[in-house]
Amino acid sequence: MPGRLRPHHSSRLVSIGEPAIAPDGQRGVYLRSEVVEAEGDAPPRYRRRLFLVHLETGHERALTSGDSAGSAAWSPCGRFIAFLASPRSTATARAPAGAGSKGQPSQLHVIAADGGEAWARTSFASGVIEFVWDADGERLLLTTREDWRDESEERGSGRWVDARLHRFDGIGWLPTGPVSLWEVDRSEGGSAKRRWSFDQPPRELRLSADGQRLVYLAALDRDEADRGLSRLWSRRAGSGTAKDLLGRAGLLSSPSLSPDGRTVAFQAPADLTTIGAPLTTFVVPRRGGEARPLTHDLETAPSVAGDTRVGKGPTRPVWLGAETLLVALNREGRSHLAKLCLDGRLETLQEGDRAVVAFTAVARRALAVVETPASPGVLIVRDVDGTERQLVDPNASFIAKRPLGHHQRRTFIGPDGQELTYWRLEPRKPRRDRAMVVQVHGGPYTNYGEAFMFEFQALSAAGYTVIYGNPRGGSSFGGAFSGAIKGAYGSVDAADVLSIVDHALGEQATADAPVHLTGGSYGGFMTNWLTSHTPRFRSAVTQRSICNWLSFYGTSDIGQWFGAQEVGGTPWDDTERLWDQSPLKYVANVTTPTLVMHSEEDHRCPIEQGEQWFTALKALGKAETRLLRFPGEGHELSRAGRPDRRIERLEAMLGWFETHP
Questions:
Q1: Is pLDDT of 2 > 70?
Q2: Number of domains in the chain
Q3: pLDDT tens per residue across span 598-654
C-alpha cells in the first residue's frame, strides 16, 4: 500500500552529482550522498562516496568507502582517478609517511580505476583547494594556502580585519595568507614541489592539453575580490608571468580550454558585470583579446532550483572539438543539453520537461544528472547519435512506494501584458478547504521549473496545492525579464506574484480557499514585502529573509556590491531609496500570522534581518509571530543543512500552515 510522503523521508533520498567521464568514454564516476542515521549522541550525517559506473552496461560499484570524497577527475590516460577527501574519513586511503594532518581539511588522493586502495598525496595543514592533472598523467597541479591557521579561533583572542570581504556563507571567516601552486607526483611516496604563489587566490584551474599553459580566474587585487570580481588569466605552467586575457574584471565563471589550446570559453553576463543578466557563453583567444559572446540573451548555465543535489556541478561548457561546445541551455524553467558552435549556431539536443543540473562530456558521449518534478537526480548517458540511456536511478524504488503530486505548467498574460509561467502541484488527496501554498524562489536570479523539490512534494502530500512560478527578476526568461526589478524591488515582481495567485485561484473550485505564503532569501524578502502590503494570505513563513536593505549592506557577505547594484545605492548616499524598498518600512501594516525561520550562521542574509522582522512584529502586536533559529547552519539549510535540522525546518513550516487554516 503506497504511503504518504512526510518530511522525515528526506533522509531516505539519495543525491547524486559531479559526473566525470573517462577519456575513452567507457566509464564514469559520480558522487553519491546518503544520510547515515544518528548513532549514540552523534547527530545524523551525510556519507559522500564516489561510484564507478560502466556506461555500456550500467554496472556500478563504490570506489571509496569514507564519508567525504568529491571533486573526482580522471587522469589523461584513464587509469587513475584523483579526488579530494579528508584522510580521517576516507577508509580506503593510506596516509603518506610523516603526514601531520589531523584529517580535517580535504587532501588530494589518487586511486586506480580498476580498484584497490586510494593513497593520500598531500598532508597540507590547510588542505587542498583544487587540482588538475598534468598532461602526462604522472603529476598533478594543486593549490593550497600556505601555513594558514586561524590562531584567533584557537586562542580566543581578538581578530584583526582589513578586507571588506572577510566572511562568506558556508565558510565563515575567510582565511588569509598566500595561495601557492604545487606540483605533486601521482605515485605514492612521490615528490612534491612548490611552483609559485598567486597575488590573489585563484579558482577554476584549467590546464591545456599539452600541459604548457594554465588558465584560471582570480581578482587583480583586494578591491576586486571584495566586489566579487575576477579576471581571466593565462600563465605558463612552469614559470613566467600571468597574462590578463580580457584586460578587465567581471563576474566570470566556468573557463574551458579548447583541445588545441588556442581558445578559452567562459561564462559571464553580457556586459561582464551586471548581476542577474543571462549568463552568456563567451570565447576569447588564449593569447588575449576581445571576448566574443555566442549566446547573448540565452542562459547557458542551469539555474533551475532544486533541493536534493550534491556536489559542485559541473556545468561549464565542454569542447566537443575545435569549433563546438556542449552547454546546458536554461530556458523558461527547463534545462537541456545543446551544441553551441563558434559561429553562434545553437542545436538543442533534446526537449521535454526536465532539467539537466550537471554534465560532462568527451567528443562523442555526454554524462549528465537530470531531474524532473517527479524524480530526483538520475544519471544518464547520451551518445552523439542521439541515443540516451538511464544508468542510475537511486530513488526509483522509494518514489514508487510514495506516489507524488501531479504537476501542471501554466502560462498566462498578466494585467500589464507580461507573460508569466508557474506550476501547480496538485495533491493526490486535497484538504477539505483546498488550501494553497505559494512558494517564491530565491536569488532572485534563479528560476522554478522542471526540477525536483522535495519540499513541494511534502507539502502536496499533506494535501496542499503548491503554486510556484517565476515573477519578473528571475532567470531563464531573458535579460529584460530578469532586469525588470533593478532598483525597484517590490514593484513588478510583487505584482507578478499576486497575478500568479489570482490565476491559480481562478482555476480552483473553491475561490475563497486559504492561501499561505513562503519563500527563502529573495523569496523571504518577497514574503515580508507582500505581507506588509496586503492581508490576503492566511499565514506566512519567511525564511533566511531580507527586511532592511540599509543594514544588509554592511552585514551580508555580498551586501556591499549586491545592494549597490540591485537596490540602487549605499546607505549614506541613497538612504531613502534603500529604505523605500525595505519591507521593514511597512511592517506596521502586517496582520498575517508569520513564522520567522533563520540560520544563526547565515552570512548571505544575516540573522539580524530575521531578528529585526520578528522583533518589529512582536513590538507591534498586530500579527501572531514566532522565531525559529537554527544553530550551526548557514544560508543553505534547506538544501544542505544537517539532516535532522532540515526535517525540523519542514515540519515547522507544515505545522504553521496547519495551525492557521
A1: no
A2: 1
A3: 999 999 999 999 999 999 999 999 999 999 999 999 999 999 999 999 999 999 999
Sequence-ordered alpha helix ranges (H) in 56-149: none
pLDDT band at 147 (very low <50, low <70, confident <90, very high): low
Tell me the β-bridge partners of 73: 82
User: Distance (Å, rounded) from C-alpha 458 to C-alpha 5?
Assistant: 6
Query: Grid coordinates representing 251?
Result: 563576474
Question: Which three cell numbers, joined as nine digits, stand for 187?
Answer: 605515485
Cell numbers that stand for 81 in this block: 582517478
- Residues 493 and 274: their CA atoms lie apart, in Å, by 19
* CB-CB neighbours of 474 under 10 Å: 30
Cα 295 from Cα 275, distance rounded (Å):
17
Query: Does a structural domain hold residue 465?
Result: yes
Domain span at 459: 403-656
Query: At residue 536, what is the residue type?
Result: R
Question: pLDDT at position 98, please?
Answer: 28
Cell numbers placing 38: 544518528
Q: What is the pLDDT of residues 34-69, one digit of tens each?
A: 999 988 899 999 999 999 999 999 999 999 988 999
Residue where the block lists cell 535579460:
479
DSSP bridge partners of 628: 597
d(CA 173, CA 52): 35
**In sequence order, what are the beta bridge partners of 268?**
280
Sheet of 515-520, strands arranged across: 406-413, 419-426, 465-469, 436-440, 515-520, 539-543, 594-599, 625-630
Q: Flag whether 232 is in a domain.
A: no
Q: Which helix (H) or strand (E) holds 504?
A: helix 492-506
Does residue 463 form part of some domain? yes
Band (pLDDT 50/70/90 cuts) for residue 175 is confident
End-to-end CA distance of the chain: 29
Cell output for 324: 563546438
Q: How far is CA 606 from the centre of its chain?
A: 19
pLDDT band at 306 (very low <50, low <70, confident <90, very high): very high
Label residue 149 by pLDDT band (50, 70, 90).
low
Q: How far is residue 325 from each of residues 282, 379, 621, measured CA to CA in Å?
A: 11, 21, 58
Strand 70-74, strand 388-392: pairing: unpaired
- 436-440/515-520 β-pairing: parallel
- Nearest alpha carbon to residue 646 among 658, 661, 660, 634: 634
pLDDT of residue 391: 98
CATH of the domain at 549: 3.40.50.1820
Whole-number pLDDT of residue 363: 81
Q: How far apart are CA 558 and CA 554, in angstroms?
A: 9
H/E stretch holding 649 reads helix 643-658
- Identify whether the C-beta of residue 651 lies closer than 8 Å to the C-beta of residue 619: no
Instruction: Give the chain's length.
Output: 661
Decide if 543 contacts 607 (C-beta within 8 A). no
Number of CB atoms found within 10 A of residue 83's CB: 27
DSSP secondary structure letter of residue 311: S
Q: Which residue's entry shows cell 588564449?
A: 286
Q: Quick check: 414 and 495 in contact, CB under 8 A? A: yes
User: Roughly what angle, to the nearest 10 degrees, separates helices 643-658 and 454-461?
Assistant: 40
Burial of 482 (0-12, 13-18, 19+ CB in 10 A): buried
Cell triple for 92: 580506503
Q: Is residue 60 part of a domain?
A: no
Greatest alpha-carbon span in the chain: 72
